[in-house]
Write a structure and sequence with these properties.
The chain is an all-alpha fold. The protein contains 20 helices and 2 strands. The N terminus is likely disordered.
Amino acid sequence: MSTAPAATATFPRGAVVAQAWAGPGEAVAPLSNPAGRPLTRTVKLILDPLVLRPVLNPEFAAGAVAVAHVDALRARITGAGPVLAATASWFVALKKERRRLRITEGNPQDLYFQRCFEVATEYGTPGPDAPRVAADVLAEVHGQDGPTVGALRGFVTDAANAGDLTRLIEATWAATTPPRPLPVPPAVAEFLATCAATPDRGLFQALVTGAAGTSGAAELDRPGVALAHGLSDRDRPARPALGESASKRNLPKPFDRSIVERLFAPLTNTFLRSGLADVPSLVRGEITRSAGPWQLADEVSRVVVVLGREAPAALVGHPSPGGAAARLRSRWEREAYVHRVLRMPAAVPPELAADVRGVREAYLRRLWVRVHGRELRQDTVSAEQVWDVLDGVLRSVILDQRDRLRSALEREAGA
């Protein structure tokens, strides 16, 4: 009589990581929470990309680790103990120098964790020259050209500017004329059919010249349309507020963001902001952009969003016409967690099931953010780049969903 193979025994990844993390003890306290476990940002910015490297070691990627791989995962963290302890010491040194220089821009963990790991790998534990090295790192991180979040907040909250900017929002939105609705042109499907392998420049340019992106936004002002696209939580888009503050953790959906919130994320990316305009130009440009079709300024961007609205339809059960749509569906269906949700929705955390069911909306949100950022940097998408953008957005959505699944499973295991 044959018997079914026993399920492979596993341990919660978070528990294994926490156990290994306890080894260095107080030496890694600056990278730990009050319970002595690694901070979320420590896992996201240091352990995963620099120590465990789950892309190269997929056995470390899931929320549960097979017994056969537990010792290897633990050994990875234990072996990195000295450089992790040095990283923690460098983080303290950088924060001390940051206070001395009265730097207030950005979150220190986001800005310095990976740089501290690099410095720790190169120099080891901080020595007598630590202040000089720390100052050099801070100069490199904060010495980038370009506008800052501080400058943005200062500009919009200045009484000399706020009134004029608010009136500009009102006037710009009052002058907006909704585009005329037209059927999706056949050229959209034709371009998607070949763009992954042999993108047709002429076909793409015809979509741009024919304003296919603008006409594709024609119904976004109707009740429920932007909501169904996942771009808003409101029944219909409303004129944005100027705003004063923003937080990456609590950013509203794209069409619900204030002007400050729309510019916040690009300005926090130290490596990209050097290519941005000055703050007054950014703010006034964003006000104009917010009133345009798809709340974007360039027709190329609008066409890319229309292509991105059509291509992922196959992810949620619609027939795949081939081309870009088929490739996206193939990538999506290779994900084990997607199979699990579709076959046994009750066996996964409710938030993940909702993520999978709402993938098309999540995809369009991420695509909007991607093309919006390119507009700010004046980095136009070419016909040859369209597939990379469409495919990259789905990869990004999948990575986010994997991380949320792993976190949810670790929380359940801990409970």
